[in-house]
Design brief:
This protein is α+β, with helices and mostly antiparallel strands. Helices cover 19% and strands 40% of the residues. It has a single domain, classed as Nucleoside Triphosphate Pyrophosphohydrolase (Alpha-Beta Complex). The radius of gyration is 15 Å and the shape is globular.
Length: 154
């Protein structure tokens, strides 16, 4: 059975189209850039929670800020990996702050097989970036979101 996630892709015209992406936190991603970014997203259980509610919750948990009150458009459902489906919404983030983030945290054993637990931020930074740079920086499974956004805004 596939796991499900939902996320929110903010965009703005500044003057060119930009999207807000987040660099994944934790030691595995620390020294990576290309393919190490994502949209704010997280898992949900279909039937227990609506995808939009999950996207709202995860955005707030990962960035520590409320998502914009602007209208959300569903971009679609994407194959994030062979076993995970990602429902994505888009919203105009022109008025969204560029700073003031409080990143959520997770715990994991670190270093591996040490028996010690360490806390790491879910994401360690968030940036507005142009679509060309975002295509390189996003994890491979999320790159089609940018095409869907362009179609929506055309």
């Amino acid at each position: 059975m596939a796991a499900w996630s939902a996320g929110l892709l903010l965009y703005r015209r500044h003057p060119a189209l930009e999207v807000l992406i987040t660099h994944m936190g934790g030691p595995f991603w620390a020294r990576k850039d290309d393919g190490a970014w994502s949209i704010p997203k997280g898992e949900f259980i279909p039937g227990d929670e609506e995808p939009r509610d999950a996207a709202f919750r995860e955005f707030r948990e990962e960035l520590g800020l409320e998502p914009p009150a602007s209208e959300w458009a569903e971009l679609g459902t994407f194959a994030a990996s062979s076993s995970k489906k990602l429902v994505v919404f888009a919203a105009d983030g022109a008025a969204f702050p560029e700073s003031g983030f409080t990143f959520g945290e997770f715990e994991m054993e670190w270093p591996p097989r040490s028996g010690r637990t360490a806390s790491f931020p879910e994401v360690d930074r968030a940036e507005w970036t142009g679509l060309d740079a975002a295509r390189d920086r996003l994890v491979k499974g999320q790159r089609p979101l940018l095409d869907a956004l362009e179609r929506l805004l055309a």
